[in-house]
Amino acid sequence: MNREQMIQRQQELLNTARAAQRELTAEEQAEFDSLQRSIDALDDPADPTPAAPQGESPEDVRAAEQERCMEITNLCRDFNVSAEDTNNYLRNGTSVDAVRAAILNNMRATGAPIASRGRAELTTDEQDKFRAAAGDALVMRSGISVEKPAEGARQLMGMSLRDLAIECLEKEGHTGLNRKSSDELFVMLMSERQFFSPTAAFPAILDNAINKAYVEGHKTVAVTFDQWTKRGQLSDFKISDNNYLAGPAGEFLEVPEGGELKHDDYRDEKMPTRKLRTYGRQFTLTRQAFINDDIGLITKRPAAYAASARKTINKQCYQILVYNPAVYDGAKLFGSTHKNLLAKGTGITREAVQGMILALQNQKDQFGEAIIVRPATIIVPSGYKFDMYTLFFSPTINTSDNTQAANPLYAYKDSITVVEDPTINALCGGFGNKMPWWLLGDKNDTDFVEVDYLNGKDIPSIRRMEAPGVLGFIWDIYLDWGISVMDYRGAIKNPGIEIKNQIELA
């Protein structure tokens, strides 16, 4: 990683924390400090001004000096460096990189972050306020609601990407921008100084807008897997080794007077492994999209990708239920080996639900001992939930002799949740096909399916990157997760029957 990339990564850390209105985490602070140490190591304080390459003409030297002075002046202005310090940098021949490193050191010591009681705190300046307002304006302009938009965001909603680019470049000292075409402006924005510089406002605004958009997309997507799976975390991508489950303690035996205690032998069983995988996509704000003022590419597209991550996890979880793979012991998840599959599928009936409850509660643990599993969730495809409500919410039922009797399932109306997901329908081929349904035990009683995330982070990460030969700003969006069947005893499967749509569609 070169100096510019390290500085860019530092700014990404700051922008992410600011967008979330929080302090840097311990991990982020450690990464920031490590990057700063690497930047400091690249600087040579004994010789801050690099020697000019041999063979340069006086005109080249003069042009380079003018460029140095302009960049230092812009840097010092953006970060409110005093006039005295600015003049010292200019007089002493200090390099732009050395000035940037000094500014970052000052940010770490007095601005954002500041060490306080072992944690980092953030401060904002006028430039940060403008970036926050512009980022929120882009998000709101695309139709995504922002709960607490930054001050001034509504006033900036009428700005196009071209207008915003001109505003950002003018704040950085450029002039005559209104006479430039959108194509020329885009070339300026794609320059290395703009793309990598932590002081460049335009890419930082895009990053802020994208962060808010994809968090909103992640939060609002309709999925159901987290209603019946456990959530876990892993710290790396190595296969989590099989754990051995200690067997139950033997029953206490009476010890006669003067007798000896009998030794108890433990029994162990190997448990399943867990592993994380990385999933992600890449998207681009292209030159054409910038010229066309396509806001959706930097707001709706990232939100859709974040939603897609959750939908992918949802689909993978239901694929386990529907496709019935072999699990850690080599046997199918649902089958005669595990005694968790009904021999014949049924529709939604009181008798079927009662039988599945009994089958769930008569499971035994790994050592043949009885376990208590409380029924908690019934998972059904789209089209079954209507009948489920009839079963659970009617206090009485009709008997065979047309009399009223108490409904035994009514007692479960508050303890059993019905989860309906059309993903099951799609995986089974849609209406006209046989569709199964399941009864799951309480997550506090058994482990069934667990979704692990890297260090518990379930929101996708996003980063801006450079791709040679691509005319545009490129972002990677990715998330690390793994799905594991931890214990087959947590569920009972009903193979189901063919489901037909009662309404004919044109």
Structure, explained:
- Among the domains are: 1-44 and 70-123, no CATH class; 315-498, no CATH class.
- It is 39% helix and 17% strand.
- The chain contains 15 helices and 15 strands.
Task: List descriptors.
four-stranded mixed sheet, 15 helices, alpha+beta, single chain, five-stranded mixed sheet, 506 residues
What global shape is seen? elongated
- Describe the oligomeric state of these chains in a short phrase: single chain
Largest sheet: 5 strands, mixed
Beta strand count? 15
- Estimate the helix proportion, in percent: 25-40%
The total count of helices amounts to 15
Could you report the average pLDDT, rounded to the nearest whole number? 81
**How many angstroms separate the termini?**
59 Å
Low-confidence stretches: 44-53, 111-124
Based on CA atoms alone, the radius of gyration comes out at 31 Å
Beta-strand percent range: 15-25%
Order of helices and strands: HHHHHEEHHHHHEEEEHHHEHEEEHEEEEE
Counting helices, strands and paired strands, the structural category is: alpha+beta
Produce a short descriptive summary.
It contains 15 helices and 15 strands. By secondary structure, it is α+β, with helices and mostly antiparallel strands.
Outline the secondary-structure elements:
Blueprint: H1 3-19, H2 26-42, H3 58-78, H4 83-91, H5 96-110, E1 114-116, E2 119-121, H6 126-141, H7 161-171, H8 182-189, H9 192-196, H10 201-220, E3 230-234, E4 244-246, E5 268-270, E6 277-286, H11 287-291, H12 300-323, H13 350-361, E7 375-380, H14 385-393, E8 396-398, E9 404-406, E10 417-420, H15 422-428, E11 434-441, E12 449-454, E13 461-465, E14 472-485, E15 491-498
Parallel strand pairs: 3-12, 7-10
Antiparallel strand pairs: 1-2, 4-5, 6-14, 7-11, 8-9, 11-15, 12-14, 13-14
